[in-house]
Structures are given as structure tokens and as C-alpha cells.
């Protein structure tokens, strides 16, 4: 009963999503968004007219005006600076617009353009000083804040009466100030357009990336050739222009030049920026964060004003929000990786019946023997980590190495070796196609093709992304083994979509079906996912019927068959299950049966732990990684099985010295060649009663001259 | 050829000297003893605040809540006395409030690791709001009879020197001793110079940082009392003014780099003198307030630019997040 409940709970409850969601970048934006929703909800409950169209439109207008300044501030903060002068620039450009319109009676388009130019110039002063002369942003904008403010004070002393007495009646100006399109205020509309552009700019365009790069590390940006000075200067110009846009809407809406316009605006905008989660010091931030921050600040201040709170309460609320937001942001940034690493591992329920016996004297097909003791060794100490081995029709032996090379050994004694091709990632499964191209699965990279002359080409490194995946599963993380059908389809296994290659034991600990079988069509170059939800799929071999593949699920301890053609197309059926070990590569044998490597044998402790997901989760949370349970890979064997899933014989090495771990085996001209991903050698074993002329290439593609 | 390196401190001092000279030559009555005293008196409070800011800036921080620490505890004393409490009790309450401000600042910065700019911006806003919402009845807290005698902290003179200047001098001596003669002061320099190295060396950097902000808040509170005593009231709206920017300018122009670990009391005095001289000269010239600010800003800008040309920073050594 309890087992059933556990099984159902782990089958249907998506534990793994928490870690995947938390490791997404957008969760950082989610925190301010949630705060915004809470604030909005609280205000709509406590204020009667909060959600009325008039109130919302008014909020949208103010949000738009401050939003522009917020965008400018975001840009400057992301590039690693700060702009305290925005309040004064706001006041000056507000004055500029009203002066041009009311005193000089310029047409509206000219007013708009000139005001934006003035804003840009005021920002350019900051930009030149900070970007080119490399003054400190904080102190420089502090000084320009004072200068611009006093210039504004001097100007309004002279012109405020002229501006106050003018009542321009220009429809286009009124539209800027109070017009709506489909009920949306003009300012909000313009803001949305600019914000969308800003988002694309920051995330998709080269200058935006430069800005983030400079903020992240100014020195690295400089060393990699980014025009640091110019980019920084332009950010301040942009800040000035954006501020002037906000001022234009403000001027059109209110038309006043009071003495306190823009005073303290820099504090509000700065609060909004930090609240949105844009990190001071640069390198991190987005348009959405800026927008959310502005909205929160505005809602809180407006809400408190509407509730007739004293000015002081308003300030206290703003300050408290700023502090809490900053603290949450900082703690999260600091502990993010640690929290994620704790919750990312999400073990699931995986029950296996007791394994068949392997002990000597117990009988059965897995009974241990010592037949592999007498193997001869190839390339001892000269090769590292040959996960798979393969021979071409000229008897040349190929193997992968940990250094990212394909090494080949030449007959007859396999003493002479050379690097056949350098790829750069760990080569895993290999297969030859009819044209003698060697296809290789590269862990962490994908499927690659090596031509007979040794040139390396990428075959595929991505597949279709599944609809509900949180982790991007379009990239291939751990392509493992492959085989090629007569029609040129390459079926290859991807062991896991949740972990990197070096973390494969963790995937075993999780025991979830994270892996998949992917199909690459050599004719069209298209890739698609054929099967998903497999427990560490590993070896793949095309069955002798030519319509199905056999594949091993390492942590499922089973061999399955998948029909890709014929009447049963799309079906999956179990060939063998409850193996005593963890199956790895599958290859053809000369007598029409199949070879299978068991990379390690099951142990009672991991079998038990697999039935106890809670235990494994606690282990992952509380115990350091190197103390975790680890699948046994110290002893393994090679077995031969037939089409019906019956084990015919097994080969063991009781001494355990020559091949502590076997991940692959390949039969060739009466010999069996053994590879192991932890070994520094390739084994060669003389088979009795084997066809001395068997060559896998000939068997698959026919004998050629 | 040996390259002559001129520090910002020397540049500012040269600017100050040039200004002082030209004012003495071209302005009638500038060099009189009376005017000199007025000059100093006007900037005494700014100077005291500069000392508080200097301690924090040397420790690689910044304290934007200083003005709140000046206005609110100072105002609290006046308000409490007005409400009938005794002067010592009121002073004690103000001192405790200042310590509380400092502790909160310090905790946020040292333990919660909030950047000082934000922590103090927010606490300043909070404290100002607290005063506005809960403590004061009016924006300007008036002098009351219970305060009798206390005005001598800011008015009158001791041995012919106006009291506020004496107070600035006392504050200078205290801060000088703290920074240069105590181990605690040496730790502040170490932390400002390289916080990580200081921590590795075994300096209890977090408690030191907290202490830094507590002392700054206390000095700010002292400046507030001097100010209240000299004008016989506490205009709490001072928080809305640009005074905090003036304080930062005093410190930075005096030559205390915002990246910490450099400078001392002398730099604060130089910075204060420069600002004082400028303000005084312009007042004599009868330039309006806004114009004074404009000129002040331009002079400061020129000083900072000159410094950058003489002591350029480069991308290789500029610190991360060095704003």
C-alpha cells in the first residue's frame, strides 16, 4: 500500500521541475513580479477606486513618465555606472519643451525633436566625462545634478511667469499629454513600444550585449576589443534622451515649471531600479525588471497618498521596500547556486525485482567464469578512456580517447598507433556507414562524422525541443551510442537531458527517465526525438530484421526493442529486463546474435535505495557529493543474447585486473575487442567457434571489392 | 625623467589657494578677520558632517543617511524638551536614536551585505519619514525654554573664536585620534584598502564596519545639535535639500577617494575650506543662491577633471563596480 502510494507520488508529481525552474534566469524577475502582484492586490482591496479606468489611466501616465527615466537608469546601471542627474535633466528638459512651445511658439514636432536633442546633450556631458575622461560616475553625476539644477533654477526665475501665463491650445500637444488610443494613454503606448525595442536591444542585438559585457567585467570587455568608452558614453546619452522623453510627456500633461520638479526623482528611480532586481555594479538587468520596479514604487506611493497617509509614512514604506528588496536580491544572488544544487537532484521511485544469481555454483546464464582472464592488451598506457572500439574492413582498430581524439591502431599487431582525428570532446559510441564515414557520438557535443580522410564534420547537435520542457532539451547533452539503418537513419541514444556527462552517476541516483532516443536522417539532415523518458539509454544496435533497433537502458537494467518501420512501427517492447548489471553497448555477433556489455553489476544497496526516493533526496541535500551512493562499476562482464532475449553465454574476468570495467565490445575476424571508459587499454580476446572471417562492415553493408 | 605626480588633495588645495588669493585681492572686506570667522562659522556644520562621512568613506562605504541623522535626533531633542521632558533625558533619547540608526546601517551593510549606497539611502528615507510621520508636529521644530543654555553649543564664542568653529575643531581632533591613534582606526583603513585582505588577516571587519556607521551617525547627531543651537531651531526639511551632496563633495574633493583606504582629517579640512571660501566669496559678490550652486558645481567639475588628467585611471586597475 505504502509502496503504491510512493510509486504514484513519484510517478505523477514533477519533483524535478523545481530545480529546473530555479536554475532559469527568469526566476530572478519573478520575485519582483510577485511583489508587484501582492502590492496591486493589497491596494485593490483597500482602495475603492484603485481599479477604476480613470485611476488606472492616471497611474499608467505617471508610470510611463517615470518608466522612461527608469529605462535610462537601467541602461546606465547595467553598464556599471549610475546617473544621479536624471532629476535635474528631467527638470531642464521639461523647461526646454515649455519654453520652446510657450515662449518661442515653435511647432510641436520641432519642440519634441529639440527637447530630445537637449536631453541627449545633457546626457552626453555625463557620457563624455564618465566614458571618455573616465571620471567616477557617482561623483560626476552628482556634480552635474547640482549644475543642471541650478541652471534650471536660474532659468525659471526668468521665464516661469511667461510659461505660466501661456495656454497653448494645440491638439497634438494635448494628445501627447492626455490622449488615448483605444483607452490606453499615449505615454503608455510609446513606453511599451520603446520597452519592447529596449528588450530586443539588450537581449538580441550586439550593442546590448556589449553593454552587459562591460557591466559584467569592464576589464574583460576592454581586453576583448569592445569599445568600452564609446559604449559607456552612449549609455549616458541614451539616459538623457529617455529622461527628456519622460519630461516631454510630463510637460504636455501638466505644463508647469515649478521649483520642485524632478527633486528627489533620482531616488525614486534608483529605488525602482534596485527593486526590479537590476544589480548595482552592472552586468545584470532587463527592461522587464525596470518596468516592474517602477510600477511597484509608483503603486505604493500613489496608494499611500490615496489613503491620506502622511508624507513620512510614504517615505518609510518606500525605504522599507527598498531595503527588503535589496536584501532578498543579495541573499538570493549569493546563495543561488547552493540552493539550486540542493534542490536540483530529484530522485524518483525505481523498483527492480531481485536480480538473477551470478555466483559460481548457482547456475544460470550469468554464472561467473574466468574466460576473460587471458586477454591480450592493445595500447596499454597509450590510450585513455576508449568507451567504444570499432574496426573497419581493413582491420584497422579505432577507439576514442579522453583527450578528444579518435585514435587508430594498425594491424597486424596493433602496436603502431596514430591520431586519426581530433574532435575536442569525449568520443563515445561509433559506427561506420556504407561510405566508410565514421559516425561518432561525442559527449556534450552531439553526433559527428569523420570522413575516411580524417576531416571532422558536425552531423547534428540539436533536436526538436519538447513542448513542456523547462530545461532546454533541444541541445544534446550526452549523446552516447548509435547505429545506422539500411535507409541511412542514424538512431542514437542521449543518456540524460538533465545532467552533464561528468554527472552521469547523479542521473543514476535520480533513476528518472531523463534519456531519449534520437533519430538523425543522413539524407535530409533532419533530427527528431524518437523516444523519450528512458532511464539512461545507452547501447543501440539495429536488429537483424532491419525494421527495429535494440537499445539498452543502463539504469533500467533492461534491453528494449523499438520498431522504426514495418507493421509495428512506433512500438516499444521489452527484450530483456531485470538484468543483474547495468547494460551498456550492444553489437552484432558473427552467429547472428548480439553482444552486450554489462558495465557494472547491481548491488543490493543501490537497489534498495532506488525504492526509497526520500532517502536519496535527503542524501543529496545533506551529504557532500563524494559521499553519495555510486552505482557499482568495478566488475562487469560481456554476455551474448539472441533475438528472443535469451542469454546464451557470459564472459567474466575474475581477476579483475585486465578489464575492471567493460563498456563496449566488437567482434572481428574471430576476436572480441573490448573497450572500457575507465580503462587505459583495449582488450583482445580470441573467441572459440567464431567465424574467422566476420567483419561487421561486410555484415552490415555487404562485401565490397 | 621623473614624472611629477600631483594628488587631488594638492590640486584642490591649489584651487583653494588661488580662489583665496584672488578673493583677497579683488574683494573688499574678504580678508578681514571678521569675514574669516564668518566663513568658517558657515561651514562648521558642513565640516563636522564631512568628518562623519570621511570615516565611512575611508572604510569603503558611503552614508547617505547622515542628513537624517543630523535632522531627526536633533529635532527629537527640541521636540521632547518642548513636550516637557528634561534636557538630559532628551539628549539621551537622541543619542540612542543616532546609535540605532548607525546599528541598522551597519548591520545592513556588514551582515546583510546590502551595498552601502542603498542601505543608507533607504535608512535615511526611513528615518526622515519616521520623524515626519511620528516625531515632529511641525517641519521646523522650535526652540523652547527648557533648552536654555544649550544654545551656547552653537552661538557665542570661546576665547574669541566662534563656538561652532571650536566644535568643528573638537570634532576634528576626536576623529583624528580615532583614525590615526587607535587600532580601530587602523582597521578602518585596512578594510577600506582591501576588505578581503583585511578579513583574511583576521580583522573583525563586520563589527568594525558596524562601529563605523554608529560613529558616523553620532557625529551627524552632534552636527545637528550644533546646528540647532546656532539657529535656535531645527528645520527638519533640511533632509530634502542637497546638503548630503555638499558633504560628499567636501570629502571627495578633499582627496578621500570613494574607493576607500585613503585620506584623513586634513582632507576634510581642505575640502571644507574650499567650499567655504567659494560660498563666502560669492556671497560677498552678491550672487544669487542658484548662481552660487552653478559656479560651485562648475568649479568642482573642473577640479575632478583636472585630477583625472593628472592621475588617470585605466581599465586594467579599475575596480569592479567602481562607481
From TrEMBL, chain A:
It is found in: Cell membrane. The chain crosses the membrane at residues 68-92, 104-125, 137-155, 175-202, 233-255, 261-280, 287-307. It is a multi-pass membrane protein. Keywords: Cell membrane, Glycoprotein, Membrane, Phosphoprotein, Transmembrane, Transmembrane helix. GO terms for molecular function: hydrolase activity; transmembrane transporter activity. One of its GO terms (cellular component) is plasma membrane. This is ABC transporter permease.
From TrEMBL, chain B:
The keyword DNA-binding does not apply. InterPro entries: ABC_transp_permease. The keyword Membrane applies. The chain crosses the membrane at residues 12-33, 39-57, 64-81, 87-110, 117-138, 158-179, 208-232, 238-258, 265-287. GO terms for molecular function: transmembrane transporter activity. Keywords: Cell inner membrane, Cell membrane, Membrane, Transmembrane, Transmembrane helix, Transport. Coiled coil: none annotated. It is found in: Cell membrane. Its main location: membrane. This is ABC transporter permease. It comes from Bradyrhizobium nitroreducens. The lineage of its organism: Bacteria, Pseudomonadati, Pseudomonadota, Alphaproteobacteria, Hyphomicrobiales.
